[in-house]
Design brief:
Helices cover about 35% and strands about 20% of the residues. It has about 270 residues and is of the alpha/beta class. The strands form two sheets. Strands 3-2-1-4-5-9-8-10 form an eight-stranded mixed β-sheet. Strands 6-7 form a two-stranded antiparallel ribbon. Helix 1 runs parallel beside helix 2. Bound molecules: S-adenosylmethionine.
């Protein structure tokens, strides 16, 4: 007997419900504010969000890196056109631009997230909506992780997982002028820190023009200037460091050093 598609597992249903609840009012706002008409769903899987976009009145194209998923999505949403396309390949650009691009659950399944973000920028006429797993760090970091071998994972089953700060920085550096987070994230434990689990998912919106929507708040470009080789000791600051050096010296040198300092300050 053929097993059910991986996208039909119960955990997808709860996640989709919570994501859809915040997406619908946002899509409605974007449609009205920007006269947005066309949409691309990149990494569409079984097409759930292609269906949401279509029911919100968009003309939708769905793309997935796996032909089997594009076929499954087409069987479920016959009013949407689906194609097999790899977001890491520049050839994907032929499917754009669309006013709204949605890329849910894909950016942490890639070998080349920066290339993918540049392709998403090229595909986006107005606004990009991203949902992704994120590493728990305020720094713009990625971690290379092994993935399980199912049809909802990366094409090579090894991928760079980004932090939320990394995603925001990639969006700015790929060419988007404005990046926003949602004031109210989906009502699902994955989108918040708790005693039992760290926040593991996020939603970000990147736009070519400024968006004045009540659901969004601006995210500044995260700085990547912190030196990763500094130790906690370094960060305590120069005065403490020189005190430390002084303490490790033999007594005669300590005395000489203190004398020099005192005479220097006189
Ligand atoms: C976790 S699923 C997300 C499905 C759907 N967007 C959702 O949020 O429920 C990731 C999807 O991205 C597809 N995918 C993986 N790597 C891809 C790539 N390089 N280009 C396009 N799609 C890719 C997978 O085949 C899979 O359908």
């Amino acid at each position: 007997m053929k097993s059910a598609p991986v996208f039909d597992q119960a955990h997808y249903a709860t996640l989709n419900e919570s994501r859809e609840a915040v997406m619908r009012p946002l899509l409605d706002g974007l449609k009205k504010k920007l006269n947005a008409e066309t949409a691309l769903d990149v990494g569409c899987g079984s097409g759930y969000f292609s269906g949401v976009l279509h029911s919100e009145g968009f003309r939708v194209t769905g793309l997935d890196g796996r032909a089997e998923n594009a076929v499954l999505a087409a069987s479920r949403y016959p009013r949407v056109q689906f194609f097999t396309a790899n977001l890491e390949d520049d050839g994907v650009r032929r499917y754009g631009p669309a006013d709204v691009v949605l890329c849910f659950g894909l950016l942490y399944h890639l070998e080349n997230p920066f290339r993918a973000l540049r392709n998403l920028h090229a595909l986006t006429g107005k606004v990009l909506l991203v949902e992704s797993m994120c590493l728990p760090s305020n720094l713009p970091l990625m971690e290379l992780r092994d993935e399980c071998r199912t049809a909802d994972q990366g094409l090579q089953f090894v991928a760079f997982y980004p932090s939320e700060a990394c995603l925001a920085k990639l969006m700015y550096r790929a060419g988007f002028s404005f990046v926003y987070s949602l004031r109210k994230n989906p009502e699902h434990p994955a989108y918040r820190n708790s005693l039992r689990q760290k926040k593991s998912r996020t939603m970000l919106v990147a736009s070519r023009g400024e968006l004045n929507l009540s659901q969004l708040e601006s995210v500044p470009e995260p700085s990547a200037k912190l030196d990763p080789w500094t130790t906690a000791w370094d960060r305590l600051g120069a005065p403490l460091r020189s005190l430390g050096r002084l303490l490790t010296k033999p007594w005669p040198e300590k005395v000489a050093s203190v004398r020099r300092r005192l005479s220097g300050s006189l």
